[in-house]
């Protein structure tokens, strides 16, 4: 329990950095040859959370930890660090084949952006079952016969996750700001430290109030990614306006209200808000980053190839799909262009189309993964 608490605290404070742990096989409870096999990335926080869910639910099973360079499942899969190569390696080197008589392994759904299930089947004979998005849903997933209702397939951005993201921004900023203030403005070290925690928390807690304004698509064709980022200046400006109002109230009741007071703290708060908000969408799981050139791509369907198998439904993290003889996207506006549906479609019926009408074949999406700046440069 102590390890779980420590890992989660450190992992939340340093969420923006890789946190690798040992790869290999972990036994949960007293598994036998019929017990389920799960696989996840070697991001320390993820491993501890999955273990805790499995142990608390008394699920006797095997947990395989694959090498993702210490990066979380979705980012490592989208970035080419968690692919079928790592899954194949984990299955072949862990000794799991001698411990169970079945050949089914449950992977987190968000790994579908990078792990090709077909390749794993071809190389190892193991079938990939796409589990739920969140580890907390694993017990219900098993109880439901390894089937997922829509709520288990969708990524969300609830309050707890928004607080974790705020902490990710606040912790390094507060350390840097406090260090600089110690030499440049020593009397303001504590207020500045508090401010760099308050503003990110305010930004992410209030996210549902302004999230509807964060829509990249309406910027149209030919808009540079940097223009798009700064086009959302109205959101940080609104937040800055709210904070200035709070400053005026505070200054009025404490007797500190003056032009110099408002100018100094208003400027500092504006810098912090802009830094946190500069790629606000990229800090959420429900929007595509403004840094990504793929933000305006759309997923297209070749109806002649589609058989209505439903794989796209199982791997889409935004519940965009429904099956009516063939795949349909009645909620296409929610798509975050993760490419999971394209990577996993066994019939190559799905592909990306650019705003100019250029077709991006499925094999290109499978082969080239996103780097941190949103370019498909990592080849697998």
TrEMBL record:
<protein>
    <submittedName>
        <fullName>4Fe-4S binding protein</fullName>
    </submittedName>
</protein>
<feature type="transmembrane region" description="Helical">
    <location>
        <begin position="232"/>
        <end position="253"/>
    </location>
</feature>
<dbReference type="GO" id="GO:0051539">
    <property type="term" value="F:4 iron, 4 sulfur cluster binding"/>
</dbReference>
<dbReference type="InterPro" id="IPR050003">
    <property type="entry name" value="HgcAB-like"/>
</dbReference>
<dbReference type="Pfam" id="PF03599">
    <property type="entry name" value="CdhD"/>
</dbReference>
<keyword id="KW-0472">Membrane</keyword>
<keyword id="KW-1133">Transmembrane helix</keyword>
<dbReference type="InterPro" id="IPR017896">
    <property type="entry name" value="4Fe4S_Fe-S-bd"/>
</dbReference>
<feature type="domain" description="4Fe-4S ferredoxin-type">
    <location>
        <begin position="297"/>
        <end position="326"/>
    </location>
</feature>
<keyword id="KW-0411">Iron-sulfur</keyword>
<feature type="transmembrane region" description="Helical">
    <location>
        <begin position="191"/>
        <end position="211"/>
    </location>
</feature>
<feature type="transmembrane region" description="Helical">
    <location>
        <begin position="166"/>
        <end position="185"/>
    </location>
</feature>
<dbReference type="InterPro" id="IPR050572">
    <property type="entry name" value="Fe-S_Ferredoxin"/>
</dbReference>
<keyword id="KW-0479">Metal-binding</keyword>
<dbReference type="GO" id="GO:0016491">
    <property type="term" value="F:oxidoreductase activity"/>
</dbReference>
<dbReference type="InterPro" id="IPR017900">
    <property type="entry name" value="4Fe4S_Fe_S_CS"/>
</dbReference>
<keyword id="KW-0812">Transmembrane</keyword>
<keyword id="KW-0004">4Fe-4S</keyword>
<dbReference type="Pfam" id="PF00037">
    <property type="entry name" value="Fer4"/>
</dbReference>
<keyword id="KW-0408">Iron</keyword>
<feature type="domain" description="4Fe-4S ferredoxin-type">
    <location>
        <begin position="332"/>
        <end position="355"/>
    </location>
</feature>
<feature type="transmembrane region" description="Helical">
    <location>
        <begin position="265"/>
        <end position="287"/>
    </location>
</feature>
<dbReference type="InterPro" id="IPR016041">
    <property type="entry name" value="Ac-CoA_synth_d_su_TIM-brl"/>
</dbReference>
<dbReference type="GO" id="GO:0046872">
    <property type="term" value="F:metal ion binding"/>
</dbReference>
């Amino acid at each position: 329990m102590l390890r779980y608490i420590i890992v989660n605290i450190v992992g939340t404070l340093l969420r923006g950095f890789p946190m690798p742990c040992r790869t290999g096989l972990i036994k949960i409870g007293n598994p036998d040859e019929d017990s389920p096999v799960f696989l996840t990335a070697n991001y320390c926080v993820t491993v501890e959370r999955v273990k805790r869910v499995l142990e608390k639910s008394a699920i006797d099973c095997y947990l395989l930890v694959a090498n993702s360079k210490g990066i979380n499942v979705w980012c490592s899969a989208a970035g080419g660090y968690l692919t079928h190569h790592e899954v194949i390696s984990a299955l072949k080197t862990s000794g799991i084949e001698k411990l169970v008589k079945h050949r089914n392994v449950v992977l987190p759904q968000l790994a579908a952006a990078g792990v090709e299930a077909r390749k794993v089947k071809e190389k190892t004979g193991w079938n990939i079952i796409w589990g739920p998005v969140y580890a907390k849903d694993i017990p219900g997933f098993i109880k439901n016969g390894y089937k997922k209702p829509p709520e288990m397939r969708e990524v969300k951005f609830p309050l707890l996750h928004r607080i974790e993201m705020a902490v990710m921004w606040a912790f390094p900023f507060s350390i840097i700001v406090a260090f600089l203030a110690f030499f440049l403005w020593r009397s303001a070290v504590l207020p500045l430290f508090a401010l760099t925690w308050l503003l990110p928390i305010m930004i992410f807690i209030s996210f549902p109030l302004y999230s509807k304004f964060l829509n990249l698509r309406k910027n149209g064709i030919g808009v540079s990614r940097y223009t798009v980022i700064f086009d959302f200046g109205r959101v940080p400006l609104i937040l800055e306006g709210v904070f200035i109002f709070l400053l005026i109230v505070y200054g009025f009741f404490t007797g500190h209200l003056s032009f110099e007071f408002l100018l100094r703290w208003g400027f500092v708060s504006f810098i912090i808000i802009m830094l946190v908000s500069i790629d606000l969408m990229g800090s959420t799981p429900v929007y595509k980053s403004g840094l990504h050139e793929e933000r305006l791509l759309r997923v297209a369907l070749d109806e002649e190839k589609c058989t209505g198998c439903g794989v796209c439904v199982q791997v889409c993290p935004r519940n965009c799909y429904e099956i009516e003889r063939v795949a349909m996207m009645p909620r296409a506006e929610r798509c975050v262009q993760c490419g999971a549906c394209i990577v996993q479609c066994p019939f190559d019926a799905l592909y990306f189309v650019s705003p100019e009408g250029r077709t991006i074949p499925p094999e290109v999406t499978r082969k080239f993964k996103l780097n941190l700046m949103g370019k498909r440069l990592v080849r697998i």
